[in-house]
Fold each of these.
Amino acid sequence: MKEELIVSGRMNHLIDPQLHIWHWHIPLYLFLGGLAAGILFFAALYTILGKEKEYPTAVKIAPFITPIILVVGLMALFLDLNHKLYFWRLYTTIRLQSPMSWGAWTLMVVTPISVIWCALNIKEIFPNWKWKYEFIDELDAFFRKNLKTLSWVLLISSLILGVYTGILFSAFNARPLWNTSILGPLFLASGLSTGAAAILLMSKSHHERLAFARIDLMLIGIEMFLIIHMFMGFLASTQVHIDAASLFLGGPYTTPFWLFVVTLGLAVPALLETLELKGFKLPAMIAPILVLFGGIVFRFIIAYAGQVSRWLY
Amino acid sequence: MAVDTKKCVGCSDCVVACQTENNVPIGYCRDWVTEVTDGTYPQLEIEIRSERCNHCENAPCVRCCPTGASQFAEGGIVLVEHDRCIGCGACIASCPYDARYPHPDGYVDKCTFCIHRVDKGLKPACVSVCPTKCLYFGDLDDPNSDVSVVLKKRKWKTLIPEAGTRPQLYFLI
């Protein structure tokens, strides 16, 4: 049999024998960014549609966790940098060709809005809250007057944040597994689904719970559809893409992916939510917790498996 | 740059010269030697290549860099400006040749074609030490440069051109 044997003299730390430049920070951040994008998307959407009263948790309560998770995510990103003291260089340029650049700028828009959103709704948590300075009251009145505009900005920037978490990977033509444009919509759908799950966990209104169970069910359906399309695309592409797909079809990531992400993170919660919508009484926490679990495992698997997949020459 | 795979003996002199010239930290390398053996025993063929950054014309590392630290110098050499690099690793993940590495000082480092020597009219360190003279360096836009002349005379290939990066490191075969 004809064989090929490649011996390389290179042994750079974190590069060889297998790329491992990104550790837990990036997938954790992508999960938190997607989650925040999901929650803020629904808050903005129902404000624009004028349904604040119908979905109080989504619009007023759930966004309170977004500044926290965004800051934790940003700290993870910061820890991942190797040249930390130069991080401000991100904000001295806008490079449209680099998803990381416009992602950094999107975060610069989304994070302050998430704080403003909390400030506007602070009386939902502390009914007797009074701002200490008058100018904050004036700002409060200004944002309340322009709430629709603020919601539109938030709606669009949260969608960009959700898509960017996937596009960040798909911009790298060197890693065949990441190099598919399906990752953008897939990560967006997954981010919205985890956002809906977080709202489900916090909501006490039966009507709101049923509405978000329905939304989550639809998003899970979209994710399944996109995952199948992703593999169809890989299997109909070049050898390196087929090799990338085989990491999940018999390779080392088969069990974690199909068991934890697809079965426990998508199929089981979809089944539980369907039963709940049909009127069965089930412990309400299980489905959303599984969705959140599936979301985080999914990002870890894509981040790690992507670094394994490569071009061979 | 062009590498004559028929002349290269894999002595790694280019690797040592680069490490000395550029103060590459111990345990890392900007250039390296790859040996590819193929065929069926006893009909085996071996190809030896001195490899480094391909200074691609459509460089994904330059495209992915969020700060503009990875950039094209005049003449097409791909460089990293150290005090603009935040060490995010995007360029490392984007390189199909894995030619970059994270320097222990934080920034990302790679082959510069010894631009500090080239600016003075010298050849890169690896080219100037090669005992078999298998490395050819020069301006590809100049039809009389060493590299242009040898590429006209010989058959050559580039590595994974299908990755779409338009690599500028040519291997004479």
Amino acid sequence: MAEHVHTAAAAQQDESHSFSKKAIWRTFWILLIITVVELALAIIYYESHFLNKHFLNGIFIIGTLAKAFFIIAEFMHLKYEIKNLIMSIAFPAMLFIWFLTAFLWDGNSYKNLRNRYDPHHVQRNNTIVAPQEGKKPGVE
Amino acid sequence: MAQSVPAGQKWWSGGHSPFHVEYGKLMMWYFLMSDAFTFGAFLISYGTIRFASNSWPDPNKVFNTFPVIGEMRMPLAFVSLMTFILIMSSVTMVLAVGAGHNNDKKGVMKWMFFTILGGLAFLGCQAWEWTHLHGEGAWWGRNPFMNINGSQSSTNFTNFFFTITGFHGFHVFSGVIINIIMLIMTWRGVFERRGHYLMIEKAGLYWHFVDLVWVFVFTSFYLL
């Protein structure tokens, strides 16, 4: 136990060099700016439908991944750990690529099959029950 | 990368941690990874249902209110405030960890206090948002919002929204509890006697993870 505490304290000593307030605040500004840009684009789209929604979604996803990278690398300090640790986190996380692809593909396929073979479903999805603009949703 | 690690170090020959971190911190990383897959499963099932739907409610219309200023049309303004609060509390958490590195007890206490405050502010915002949506008739199994093309929507939207933001809110809540315990332990000098503030680091990892998940929740529900 004493040995363990000693090594832990030693590990902390080693890391103290890599801690800089400058890097923290830089990360903060990067995160904030990405978020503000995303919001601005979302609001511009909402007000004017000026941009293509699929294109915007691409930007949102890239922004999100960038933010995730900065939080993990800087705030969670993973960038400064040794490669063994980084890989033992990053490698399993790659399962998400399969996870996302397989499931979203499946959802899309289900939609297409239903639209092709279930006329009742299509009809209900195309029945307009509320005005598209104007009235606030959910208020009588 | 790592500092003061001798070149040609044989990491797997035994005698020391091949990851060069303390056991508890490593286990916190692995716990967070399993938690990431739990959240991933939630968010991906939400995505699957969205991909399987012909139309979906417009988040800009659902989330367009702000407290006090009231029913003004301010799409996404409130949720951006929540995001800002969470990012800010993440920064104060890193500063607490940094203070811990310098064995600065006062600094740790100050920054932990601000982190807790940020967490509570976030929870307050979420409580207001849930109350507001509930007031509009939204809840598990009830969805008053029409699809963006004007057709009748299913309850998928509200079910996923309340389940996932609720699960995230629960994480924020437990994070605040952990941070309060850390603050009390710091105040009582537990870490000072121990000689290091590694517990603050572990709590910090959890707290940043909560922020990380919010980044994905925010994109999935409010932007896409």
